Amino acid sequence: MRKVLYIISVMLIFAACAGDRCRTPFGEGCSIDLSEPEFINLYNNPGETLVIFNRGYRGILVHCINFSEYVAFECACPYCRETAMEPDDSRRASMLICPECGSRFEVIFGNPLEGALTNCMLYQYNTHYDGHYLSIY
Known about the structure:
By secondary structure, the protein is α+β, with helices and mostly antiparallel strands. It has a single domain, classed as 3-layer Sandwich (Rieske Iron-sulfur Protein), CATH 2.102.10. It has one helix and ten strands, in the order H-E-E-E-E-E-E-E-E-E-E. The chain has one helix at 2-20; strands spanning 30-33, 49-52, 60-66, 69-74, 86-87, 95-97, 104-106, 124-125, 127-129, 133-136. The strands form three sheets. Strands 2-3-4-8 form a four-stranded antiparallel beta sheet, with no helix packed on it. A three-stranded antiparallel beta sheet has the order 1-10-9, with no helix packed on it. The longest helix has 19 residues, at 2-20.
């Protein structure tokens, strides 16, 4: 009976730890005025991206999907966790790349691309756009 309880305990511990693998650290969001000079390129400009370095855990990548929809992802690598990923292009990124492990993630849905060291998606922040301000939370 003791052996069975021990085995069950070990299995529960491993199951609990396995669930933590995709918990990417994230930080505080923000609200940005898209008419401000530093954010104007995002304003109604589909395909445009911008990394906000002083928010989130390791920065927040914001991507304009269309004239009224934006997505925002944490720049912390889900595999390395402490490493800030970088966009493949500073203005029109299609992916975030981890300089430490080489994992790549696409910026529309946050999915890992082939060759990534994890199957975890990027942490996605909620966004709300009111036509002027973009809230990231």
